[in-house]
Specification:
By secondary structure, the protein is α/β, with parallel strands linked by helices. It has 2 domains: 240 residues, Aspartate Aminotransferase, domain 2 (3-Layer(aba) Sandwich), CATH 3.40.640; 117 residues, Aspartate Aminotransferase, domain 1, CATH 3.90.1150. The protein is built from 12 helices and 14 strands. Helix 1 packs across helix 10 and helix 10 crosses helix 12. The N and C termini lie far apart (69 Å). The chain binds pyridoxal-5'-phosphate. Pyridoxal-5'-phosphate (PLP) binds next to helix 3.
Amino acid sequence: MRGTGSPAPDPLNPDRDTALTIDGPALAQGLQYGDTSGLHGLLEWIYGLQEDQHGRKRGEGWRVSVGAGSQDLIFKVETKAAAVAALVNPGDPVLVESPVYAGVIPMFQSLDCEQIEVETDAHGICSSSLRSILENWPSGKLKPKVLYSVPYGCNPTGMTATLERRKEVLALSREHNFLILEDDPYFYLYYGDAPRPPSYFKLELEEPEAGRVLRFDSLSKILSAGIRIGFASGPAPLLDAIDRHTSTSNLQTSTLTQVIIHTLLKSWGYEGFITHTRNVAAFYRHKRDVFETALEKHLSGLAEWSSPQAGMFFWFKLLLNEQDGAGDSESIIRTKALERGVLALPGTAFLPNGRKTAYVRAAFSLTGEEEVNEAIRRLREVILEDRVAKLSTV
Ligand SMILES: Cc1ncc(COP(=O)(O)O)c(C=O)c1O
């Protein structure tokens, strides 16, 4: 099998493509069933990466499994197989940062979980709110066993949690005995000026005892979403539960895809991989700047936002009502903006209880400069028309 159809970019020289060949034993292996937790060579590469990036050494009670994207692994740990490992049982309360990645809301709903929303701001989970929820927990009621968070370039809010907030959340996880589900597909898309904060997975090494963090990585945002490769790293019993689920559902992640990815990553090495991710992050930083310039030009005084330091999302609040800035972005975004060809998501899609919010999520991953400018100009028109319409009904 020759990769000459779409050669891989050379990370050390992004203008050059490299053709990789997969044949002989590697191809034969790729065409067969493989181990449930993943291809041996790829797992080895991932262990090396986790040591390099998060300081986690093998043989310390944790392990790795590969999945068909991180979504596959999150689903498997949250749903019934995880019940075997006593992680989340049907009906349990779970802590979710709020607003939360819309992809996990139906997972918890399918287990009839009570989703307890924990407030976030531009610095991450508001640990004081989390503390207050936990300290005022009704006596006799089962306490939450997990907290779900996207700590870098959060989908939808774009926030990156600060070191201080991460430490406070970790301390609370120890005090109140819950596990942190660290869903981190935007970890490698950090482009902030300040030094990057460590992951929860790394930070927990400073705790008296590690084993409270289950981390999800994804290659979707840095290599390709279509290859469907993600990996989970964390306490061995939970990874065993994920594997049990895999072995009864899809048996394993495609071996051929894993062989292709492993061949590419091996050829890059860790240095080449990190160089590649830095190039991707720089690409998104530029997109962020273009988007923010358009926001400043067209929506100053009509919206409020914080500038993301990672990832591909802007989360902004429409000031629909001049008096108090309150309101609901849903009708504007789903009807009036959409009718004019502007695609964004109303903030309510990211709130498990579906309450109204004036916030909007816009992704800046695919659009070019002119399109962004035009889209936000049109959004400005829609907001102004909405304001006039409201005034005329007063
Ligand atoms: C926060 C978050 N988690 C998980 C996923 C799914 O990632 P994957 O493609 O690895 O399944 C996404 C995709 O957008 C995401 O934003």
